[in-house]
Amino acid sequence: MRQLTLDSHTALRLLKVSDASQLAQAYLRNREHLSEWEPERADEYFTEAWQAENISQVLAAHQNGLAYPYGLFRGDALVGRFNIASVVRGPFQSGSLGYWVDHNFTGQGLASRAVAALRTEATDSLGLHRLEASTLLHNHASQQVLLKNGFGKIGMAPNYLKIAGRWQDHNLYQAILHDRA
Question: Which residues form a coiled coil (predicted)?
Fold first, then answer.
């Protein structure tokens, strides 16, 4: 399984169903930290069983080139999740980037390095032409990660996603990966 090395201790790799326990623990450990940035989650979401089923579903989409679910690992510990999802093939060749980093590891540049690695992977290996991402208007840290990695702001979408229990506006970003045919 391909691994994207960020530094001597940190790498991204495709999630496996066997990562479900660690992923559930990471979500539980970060439940409060992520609550401002994600949809409201039922208690079931934070279980190994729910995460295993979700990973299975996303890996099925991955087999068709439509999703790329990565775990961010510091040593053997899962400390974040990065996804290229909603991949559309054909003339569009586009995917949507989403990510989070464990609250114990924010501010260390991990998100920036991971997004850089995924942008390169999307360009060189996944055959994508465009990556998009969205952030809440007040998520300045994530906006900086995207801007550092060559994403440009393309607008603001009112009431874009239901986050933390209410419909919220989001800034929209994109990176055009190449102009090659």
Answer: none
Within the chain, strands assigned E span 3-5, 10-14, 68-74, 77-88, 94-101, 130-136, 152-163, 166-176
Alpha helices in 12-139, H assignment, sequence order:
20-29, 31-35, 48-63, 110-124
pLDDT of residue 180: 54
Sheet-wide strand order for 10-14: 3-5, 10-14, 68-74, 77-88, 94-101, 130-136, 166-176, 152-163
Q: Of 54, 35, 36, 59, which is closest to residue 44 (Cα–Cα)?
A: 54
Q: What is the distance between the alpha carbons of residues 171 and 178, in angstroms, rounded to a whole number?
A: 23
Radius of gyration of the chain from Cα atoms?
16
Give the Cα separation of 120 and 94 in Å (integer).
Answer: 14
Q: CB atoms < 10 A from the CB of 135, how many?
A: 21
- Ranges of residues in the chain with a pLDDT under 70 are 1, 180-181
- Tell me how far the alpha carbon of residue 131 is from its chain's centroid: 11
Amino acid at site 177: L
- The structure's pTM equals 0.95
